[in-house]
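ok new one. same drill as before - structure tokens go in, u give me an amino acid for every spot. 388 of them this time. try not to just spam alanines like last time pls lmao
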């Protein structure tokens, strides 16, 4: 590695940088997972975690990655052979519907171009056509981390209502929670899926399901086999401030501290900061003469920006040059976007100057990798960040 003094720039869209306060909070002795100290921690946390989901309903916390929380949402609410409506917004939406199919669900997978979010009109049309109410759930990825496109969760809720359809609404907020405005209760989401290592600024290892009363009722008759992910024994144990298994105790200390940091900044400010960083990044990309992957002004992600390179360039080569020369990690193109895009993560623990450094590193790396760009990108980003 040519230069490696100073901190590594981890500008992938998750896992993200963990604040020092969170690292310190986790550097504690492990405690008795059935003792009074743990039960006080759990009682406090299960309340404190609610505002970031925009909910007053229970949040189930798993020692799992986000993929586990996906599975939990499906197996707790659905039965073998149930139809679910999914949308091809990108790599993560594709993986989630593959999981649904493997679990024995019948997936209606609406094709997409990986440059748009879920179209609320399409949701309404599909559900209105399902007069027999065979579709049991609509699954949407809020922020498609592979494309930098954010679907409009509130508008999709209105589309479901406009169709008068009773399907459950399951939403993946894995890379949007703590970055982009989100309202589980207000938007009538039935299960919100999330995890620790993106906007929540924690290491990987915690998965979340925020659960509506309707989802809880569905879980009483849902027939998919489940054991570890079953909500019922967890919610029962939670009343006593415990879990039916050993929790990731030290990650929970980290979660308590990360939530404290988020709420101290204030969620509206956190969302505005992400939107501002995203806009500054797009200003740089536009000034370079490159293209942002997202095509709809209403759907730009606040968490990351995917940059499309001209056909003749390999985005993985650009990333490699930037890593070797400037010690900065950027996100790779996933699935059908491999080699075509790189992704700049600007989510989580990030200030204006970190973003400015990130943009500078990308601009220098593009030049070194032989991608001709207008050097006005940095200035465009700084102009945006420097506005009063
Ligand atoms: C990262 C991510 C996942 C997968 O989460 P894991 O923790 O890797 O299992 C799923 N969905 C989205 C939108 C993601 O960004």
């Amino acid at each position: 590695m040519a230069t490696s003094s100073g901190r590594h720039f981890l500008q992938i869209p998750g896992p993200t940088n963990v604040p020092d306060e969170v690292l310190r909070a986790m550097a504690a002795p492990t405690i008795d997972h059935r003792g009074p100290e743990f039960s006080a921690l759990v009682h406090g946390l299960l309340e404190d975690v609610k505002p970031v989901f925009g909910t007053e309903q229970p949040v189930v916390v798993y020692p799992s990655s986000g993929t586990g929380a996906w599975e939990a949402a499906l197996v707790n609410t659905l039965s073998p052979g149930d139809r679910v409506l999914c949308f091809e917004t990108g790599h993560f939406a594709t993986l989630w519907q593959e999981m649904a199919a493997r679990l024995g669900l019948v997936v209606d997978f609406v094709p997409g171009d990986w440059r748009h979010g879920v179209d609320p009109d399409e949701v309404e049309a599909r559900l209105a056509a399902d007069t027999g109410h065979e579709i049991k759930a609509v699954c949407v990825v809020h922020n498609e981390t592979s494309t930098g496109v954010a679907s409009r969760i509130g508008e999709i809720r209105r589309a479901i209502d406009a169709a008068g359809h009773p399907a459950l609404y399951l939403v993946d907020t894995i890379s949007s929670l703590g970055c982009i405005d989100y309202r589980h209760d207000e938007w009538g989401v039935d299960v919100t899926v999330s995890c620790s290592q993106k906007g929540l600024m924690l290491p990987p290892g915690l998965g979340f399901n925020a659960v509506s009363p309707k989802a809880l009722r569905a879980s009483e008759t849902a027939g998919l086999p489940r054991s570890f992910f079953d909500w019922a024994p967890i919610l029962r144990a939670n009343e006593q401030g415990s879990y039916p298994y050993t929790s990731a105790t030290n990650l929970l200390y980290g979660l308590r501290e990360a939530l404290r940091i988020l709420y101290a900044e204030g969620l509206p400010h956190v969302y505005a900061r992400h939107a501002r960083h995203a806009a500054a990044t797009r200003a740089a990309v536009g000034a370079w003469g490159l293209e942002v992957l997202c095509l709809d002004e209403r759907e730009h992600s606040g968490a990351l920006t995917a940059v499309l390179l001209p056909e003749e360039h390999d985005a993985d080569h650009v990333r490699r040059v930037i890593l070797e020369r400037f010690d900065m990690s950027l996100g790779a193109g996933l699935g059908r976007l491999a080699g075509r895009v790189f992704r700049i993560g600007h989510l989580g623990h990030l200030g204006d100057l970190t973003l400015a450094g990130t943009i500078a590193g990308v601009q220098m790396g593009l030049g070194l990798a032989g991608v001709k760009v207008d050097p006005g990108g940095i200035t465009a980003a700084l102009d945006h960040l420097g506005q009063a």
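The mean pLDDT is 97. and btw Residues 267-288 form the longest helix (22 residues).
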